[in-house]
Design brief:
Layout (H helix, E strand, L loop, with lengths): L5 E3 L2 E7 L3 E7 L6 E7 L1 H10 L10 H11 L3 E11 L2 E10 L2 E7 L1 H11 L3 E4 L4 E2 L3 H13 L3
Parallel strand pairs: 5-8
Antiparallel strand pairs: 1-8, 2-3, 3-4, 4-9, 5-6, 6-7
Helix pairs in contact: 1-3
């Protein structure tokens, strides 16, 4: 990984909206205007919310049992990377040490984020996947443009 091409994430935010769905927002810091956004299903948002301490399931979630087994087997997680988008699908990699060897696994970004939060390992996102938040003035300007366009 070229560290100049990736941003380390410091904030993992979740948002649920009946019309838009479940969203996970990753940012370097709360003040940063650049962010990574992914839409996730109910199981994935629950796993991430659990790792953030927002929900407490009565029983272990699927990733909990797998991580317990892997930890018992001596697997140590180093980091995750959300590296690219192909055909409207985001791709992530999980880096782990197994028997002294660094191994890389393909992963869904939502699963990788839940794992990283659970294991407290770094989350990296490729800069090309980041969006920039619009200021209120920019939003108003775009709304005015949309109102003037005839369809």
């Amino acid at each position: 990984m070229d560290s100049n091409e990736y941003v380390e994430i410091g904030e993992v935010l979740i948002k649920t909206d009946r019309t838009q769905g479940n969203m996970v927002i990753l940012k370097r810091s709360e003040e940063d205007s650049h962010y990574f956004l992914m839409f996730v299903g109910d199981a994935e948002i629950t796993a991430i919310a659990k790792e953030k301490g927002l929900v407490e399931p009565k029983r272990p979630l699927t990733h909990d049992i797998y991580l317990t087994i892997l930890k018992r087997a001596g697997v140590r997680f180093e980091k995750i990377e959300i590296s690219e988008m192909r055909e409207n699908t985001f791709y992530a990699k999980v880096y782990a040490h197994i028997n002294g060897e660094l191994v890389v696994f393909d992963s869904r970004p939502s699963d990788a984020v839940a794992l990283a939060l659970h294991e407290q390992c770094p989350i990296w996102v490729h800069k090309k996947l980041l969006r920039i938040e619009l200021t209120p003035e920019e939003v108003q300007e775009f709304e005015m443009i949309v109102k003037t366009v005839k369809f």
